[in-house]
């Protein structure tokens, strides 16, 4: 089964561009194809949009994780996810 991950950016003001984040997720151990980003700042995809995009790509399970931007552009992702679908 394909498991998608929604990375919810907790502080979008200090995060890199949302288009860059799936590629950066590879450095964190995620498959960029199965990652979608979401945030609460204007211009960022909503969690619902991110989940829908993963489902449209064929994800059978979707996990929701918090991602915290840190200085120097690094992203810290929560160790445990919350399963939203599947």
Give the gist of this structure:
The chain is of the alpha/beta class and 86 residues long. It has helices at residues 21-25, 47-56; strands spanning 3-9, 35-39, 61-69, 75-77, 82-85.
Radius of gyration: 12 Å
Care to count the β-strands? 5
- Give the overall average pLDDT: 84
What overall geometry do the principal axes of the alpha carbons give?
Answer: globular
> What share of residues is helical?
10-25%
Strand content: 25-35%
Uncertain parts? none
- Give the termini separation: 10 Å
Number of contiguous helices: 2
* SSE topology string: EHEHEEE
The structure class reads: alpha/beta
For the biggest sheet, the summary is: 5 strands, mixed
Which terms summarize this structure?
86 residues; alpha/beta; 2 helices; 5-stranded mixed sheet
Structure notes:
The protein has 86 residues and is an alpha/beta fold. 17% of the residues lie in helices and 33% in strands. It is built from two helices and five strands; from the N terminus they run βαβαβββ. Strands 1, 2, 3, 4 and 5 form a five-stranded mixed sheet that branches. The longest helix has 10 residues, at 47-56.
Helix/strand layout:
Elements: E1 3-9, H1 21-25, E2 35-39, H2 47-56, E3 61-69, E4 75-77, E5 82-85
Parallel strand pairs: 1-2, 1-3
Antiparallel strand pairs: 3-4, 3-5
